[in-house]
């Protein structure tokens, strides 16, 4: 009965936190709508996003073309829907790449300490020494433009932040009693790191990852705008804005709607990240 009471209390506490967290609801709702638009793009798009119709080029938003058409007569609404697929994939894959590099680095550095910690953190500092956009630009200049190279370049420039966040979290829990108990009974270091330390140190990293998802999409769009990211015929929001830069003053819709899609995506993820931070913050209970 005591166990049931404990579970009920925990469930009630989390339910209360979620219900009283409007940022979480708004961010999750917006992100869900964007994901649904991306998944259902083949059925929601009224036109083939690659179909050119020069007879209808640069039309302002109207009943036939809700977001207007571009300089090749392609329907911008259809292209924005299909662009969501590419942008969301870029955000997800890049964050996963960054975690695959940063997670073991931060985990080992925080647990091992000493020279191992120093070496791993100094290597991370080398990557952090570059200005935020300079390293991806240099890597893409060497590797060439393309979606995979964009994701790889951003992931390499992003992983040191995850490594440092996880290292700090591991340092705060590695001296807990359950860690010393596991060491005393001969549990392997790998098991201690991944079974005992990682689950208890993931909260700040999860919050950061949820917020970085939007920034990755913004970075990828910026690189595509500069001609270093996605290449035609790939449909990507940043590339759409780049193609419209010479048309924007006279034909505003060619850049406004892809830009609005980026804005909504970044806003949704940031609201979701803020909501998660408030919900998972250990001082949250004191503010209720």
Describe the structure in your own words.
By secondary structure, the chain is mainly alpha-helical. The protein has one domain (21-42, 67-282): Orthogonal Bundle (MetI-like fold), CATH 1.10.3720. It is built from 13 helices and no strands. The chain has helices at residues 2-19, 22-39, 41-44, 76-112, 114-128, 134-143, 147-173, 177-184, 189-201, 203-225, 237-243, 253-280, 284-287. Helix 4 packs parallel to helix 7 (147-173), helix 4 crosses helix 10 and helix 7 (147-173) crosses helix 9 (189-201). The longest helix has 37 residues, at 76-112.
Structure in a nutshell:
One of its GO terms (biological process) is transmembrane transport. This protein is mostly helical.
Q: What is the topological layout?
A:
Blueprint: H1 2-19, H2 22-39, H3 41-44, H4 76-112, H5 114-128, H6 134-143, H7 147-173, H8 177-184, H9 189-201, H10 203-225, H11 237-243, H12 253-280, H13 284-287
Helix pairs in contact: 2-4, 2-12, 4-5, 4-7, 4-10, 4-12, 5-7, 6-7, 7-9, 7-10, 8-9, 10-11, 10-12, 11-12
Features:
288 residues; mainly alpha; MetI-like fold; 74% helix; elongated; BP-dependent_transpt_permease; MetI-like_sf; transmembrane
């Amino acid at each position: 009965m005591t166990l049931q009471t404990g579970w009920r209390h925990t469930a009630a506490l989390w339910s209360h936190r979620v219900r009283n967290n409007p940022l979480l609801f708004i961010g999750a709702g917006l992100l869900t709508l964007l994901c649904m638009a991306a998944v259902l793009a083949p059925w929601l798009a009224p036109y083939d996003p690659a179909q050119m119709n020069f007879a209808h080029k640069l039309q302002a938003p109207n009943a036939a073309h809700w977001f207007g058409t571009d300089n090749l007569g392609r329907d911008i609404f259809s292209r924005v829907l299909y662009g969501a697929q590419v942008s969301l994939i870029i955000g997800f894959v890049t964050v996963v790449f960054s975690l695959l590099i940063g997670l073991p680095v931060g985990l080992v550095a925080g647990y091992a300490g000493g020279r191992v910690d120093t070496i791993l953190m100094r290597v991370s500092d080398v990557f952090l020494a570059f200005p935020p956009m300079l390293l991806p630009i240099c890597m893409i200049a060497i590797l060439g433009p393309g979606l995979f190279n964009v994701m790889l370049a951003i992931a390499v420039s992003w992983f040191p932040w995850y490594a440092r966040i996880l290292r700090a979290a591991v340092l705060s829990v590695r001296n807990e009693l359950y860690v010393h108990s596991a060491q005393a009974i001969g549990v392997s270091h790998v098991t201690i790191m991944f079974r005992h330390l990682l689950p208890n140190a993931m909260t700040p990293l999860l919050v950061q990852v949820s917020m970085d998802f939007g920034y990755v999409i913004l970075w990828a769009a910026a690189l595509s705008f500069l001609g270093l990211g996605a290449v035609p015929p790939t449909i990507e929001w940043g590339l759409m804005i780049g193609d419209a830069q010479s048309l924007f003053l006279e034909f505003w819709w060619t850049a406004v709607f892809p830009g609005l899609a980026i804005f909504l995506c970044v806003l949704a993820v940031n609201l979701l990240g803020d909501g998660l931070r408030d919900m998972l913050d250990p001082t949250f209970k004191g503010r209720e």
